[in-house]
Design brief:
Blueprint (H helix, E strand, L loop, with lengths): L1 H26 L6 H31 L8 H15 L2 H23 L16 H25 L1 H11 L14 H17 L4 H19 L7 H4 L6 H8 L24 H5 L20 E2 L5 E2 L8 H26 L1
Antiparallel strand pairs: 1-2
Helix pairs in contact: 1-2, 2-3, 2-4, 2-8, 4-7, 5-6, 5-7, 6-12
């Protein structure tokens, strides 16, 4: 069954490349990018299969066991647009294959100096392919945990990442609701790490696909958890929903300061080891505190912050928030001095 799918996938990749992509490359004088474009077709088809599988598996679960009632279907549609942009490989592919020749060049210079590139698999002789894959997955997840913590620690970075948290109707497409600049930073970070530890391009495609699929499950509007033991082995929708909970998952002790809990991307072990795990059994509402209308001590009512409804509006407001964060940082420094 699996072999039939792989054969079908390879046939479709070859046909799409030869019938559509290759003629365009030669017509536009971009024939030198033929090899990278063939890999790009693999990214595109992998993403398309992901999107189809997610809809067929997770959408029925959302309908049968919803964690909350959907109140804004337009917001879910907007998340789907983000998913198409990200899952069809545009940013991840461009970053990885831009960095790949650069890293090869650096590796060549190092070899001339007698320094050989590091390869994680070489630490254990005869490592089986599955063990190698899982090792890479764990190592990349460890670094992804710290990247995620950084998004919640620095005010300018949170200004971008808060777009992801602003979804009050979290759903199976919400994993990709990110600012494009934030996505670019993460894709560069992960691609450099993958290349630095010896991940092959084909293996990287599969690593990304597995990680993204699990993250889509975490964001799904599904009342699902993995039990007392399972919750500590793999991040569940309930564990990650706590991370998105208003005033809990993105704030330290609910006091409005940056921080939060449950930063793990795939494995909760990092949250457990570094003291950021919260295994709350509730199903909390999601969003960012400043989105909501609030009453000030003097009795006046302040409207919630606008995070935008459409794709381009959300992208623009993210840049506005980041600029505000830098202005506030400079003001604080001047005041402190």
């Amino acid at each position: 069954m699996i072999q039939h799918f792989l054969d079908w996938f390879a046939f479709l990749q070859g046909w799409l490349f030869e019938s559509v992509v290759e003629p365009i490359l030669f017509h536009t004088g971009l024939g030198e990018y033929t090899e990278d474009a063939f890999e790009g077709v693999e990214w595109f088809l992998t993403g398309a299969c992901e999107v189809a599988a997610l809809y067929l598996v997770l959408r029925p679960l959302e309908a049968l066991f919803p964690a909350q009632r959907m109140t804004d279907r337009h917001a879910r549609l907007n998340d789907f647009i983000y998913t198409l942009i990200h899952r069809l490989g545009l940013f991840t592919m461009a970053v990885f294959f831009t960095l790949d020749p650069l890293m090869d060049h650096v590796a060549g210079l190092l070899r001339m100096e007698g320094v050989h590139p590091f390869n994680l698999e070489s630490l254990v002789a005869g490592m089986p392919p599955l063990a190698s894959f899982l090792l890479y997955l764990v190592v990349l997840d460890f670094f992804d945990y710290w990247f995620h913590r950084g998004q919640h620690k620095f005010r300018w970075w949170w200004a971008l990442h808060s777009l992801h948290h602003s979804q009050r109707n979290m759903n199976l497409w919400s994993d990709n609701r990110n600012h494009l600049l934030d996505d670019l930073l993460r894709d560069v970070y992960m691609a450099v790490l993958a290349l630095a530890i010896g991940v092959a391009p084909g293996q990287y495609v599969l690593l990304v696909a597995v990680s993204r699929s699990l993250q889509s499950l975490q964001h799904a509007n599904v009342r699902l958890h993995f039990g007392a033991i399972g919750e500590r082995l793999l991040i569940s929708p309930r564990f990650h929903r706590t991370h998105h909970a208003v005033g809990l998952g993105h704030e330290s002790r609910g006091q409005g300061s940056l921080g939060g809990c449950n930063f793990g991307v795939l494995l909760p072990v990092w949250d457990i080891l570094f003291g950021t795990a919260n295994f709350d059994k509730g199903w909390h509402g999601t969003g960012v505190r400043d989105q909501f209308e609030r009453t000030l001590p003097d009795g006046t009512v302040r409207a919630g912050r606008d995070y935008g409804r459409g794709f381009w509006r959300q992208q623009w407001l993210g840049l506005v928030r980041m600029a505000d964060a830098f202005r506030l940082f400079r003001h604080d420094r001047r005041k402190a001095s």
